[in-house]
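INTERNAL AUDIT FORM
Audit reference: QA-55
Scope: verify that the stored structure record matches its stored sequence.
Auditor: D.O.
Record contents follow.
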Amino acid sequence: MNVGLGVISFDKKSIGTLTSAAGNTELTVSVNKTDKTKLSESNQAAVGSRPVYDINVVAGKTAIHDLNGGNARISIPYVPQASEDSHAVVIYYIANDGELIVVPNSVYDAQTGQLYFTVSHFSTYAVGYSQVNFNDTAASFAKDSIVYLSARKIIDGLGGNKFAPKATMTRADFTLILARIAGVQLDSYKSTSFKDVKASDYYAASAEWASEKGIAGGIGGGKFEPKANISREQMVAMIARFAAFMNYSLPANANALTFADDSSISGYAKEAAAAVQQAGIINGKTFASKEGSYFAPKDFATREEAAKMLAKLIQLMA
């Protein structure tokens, strides 16, 4: 649906919500630029010269704010400023209390000049810029992905302006990243069902959420092993389960690849490895001394590998 300053498309559930709310009244959808002086001084400073939009759906004279579990995909035009890294261009949701909340799933497409994002409610949204500078990512193959994720507060550095791209990723941290991508409100998870996770641990809520939703399981004996390094096969299995939780079907964009070490991929991860590879999220590894492409299922995933995969996943889902 083209609404002048933007384009909005609704999923099946949101269409049901809107149809029910509208009844016999006329449904009006609009995307309009709003007066930035209505924002707080701090928000005006954060947004700068970038546009702010009011996105509204009205049934008769009644505004509809919540899509009740449905989603709307929105695209708005934007031209990055000369100094801006397009991967760090973000969309902010302006909450009722004035807080700027970054929308985790936005993506800027330089070819179309459009900023795409998906929302579950309508309100005021602003284009922003949130680049985080790390001093150890310039040579990383995942540099753009790291910029993308850190701008959206999905992945953090390790202090001292360092990202540590070659460091390994833990099971606990991976669940926390997935929860942030999903936009989960983790405050409702007050306790833990795992013997080796304390309720006060920073990852306790995300581990509980991932377990509850079937994205990550324990290892037996009531343990989660939160600080264990996540392997590549564990990571793709969690990505595939996460996509299913988000009601997203991974596309088959790439030609199916038979890995040279396919037989060493655990049974629980075989289907996920194939699906994630065909979606273009993961590639095989090549070695000078060996022929073929290897999945290396038991290798521990690095932080830059995780960043590359997750940024690609979000951009596919946007």
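Auditor finding: record pair retrieved intact. The chain has a mean pLDDT of 93.
Action required: none
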